[in-house]
Amino acid sequence: MRHWAYMLGGLIVWTIHFMGVYGIASVADVAAHAGHPLARAAVVAFTGVCLVAAGWLTVVAARRWRRGGDEMAGFTDAIAATGGAVSALSILWQGLPAVVGF
User: Is there a contact between 10 and 80 (Cβ–Cβ < 8 Å)?
Assistant: First the structure.
């Protein structure tokens, strides 16, 4: 189970980000409107935290992948690094509307 969590770590962070941004926008829409400056600031801050987490997972996996090891370790490191990089780009893309103002 630990290997699965490692390989899917970036995608898990991306999922948490998606649900968090959706939740922030939903609460903001009920309280005022989704484009409220406080809601946008919350999305930007949450996006930053998730980007740091996905970036950290990507860097750790890439370093382990470059270090080498047996074939299975290389496979899990490659999956973790690729998933983390895709997740970081996706998190950035999802958080971009809050930065530019919808």
Answer: yes
Instruction: Lowest mean pLDDT of 22-26, 49-53, 81-85, name the range.
Output: 22-26
**Inter-residue contact 84 to 9 (CB < 8 Å):** yes
What is the C-alpha separation between 52 and 75, in angstroms, rounded?
24
Residue 8 pLDDT exceeds 80:
yes
Residue 51: closest CA among 3, 86, 100: 86
The rounded distance, in Å, linking the Cα atoms of 19 and 24 is 9
CA distance 70 to 102: 47
Characterise 36 by phi-psi region: left (phi > 0), alpha (psi -120 to 50), beta (else): beta
Q: CA distances (Å), 2 to each of 5, 54, 95, 101, in order?
A: 5, 17, 29, 39
- Confidence label for 102 from pLDDT (cuts 50, 70 and 90): low
pLDDT of residue 19 exceeding 70, the answer is: yes
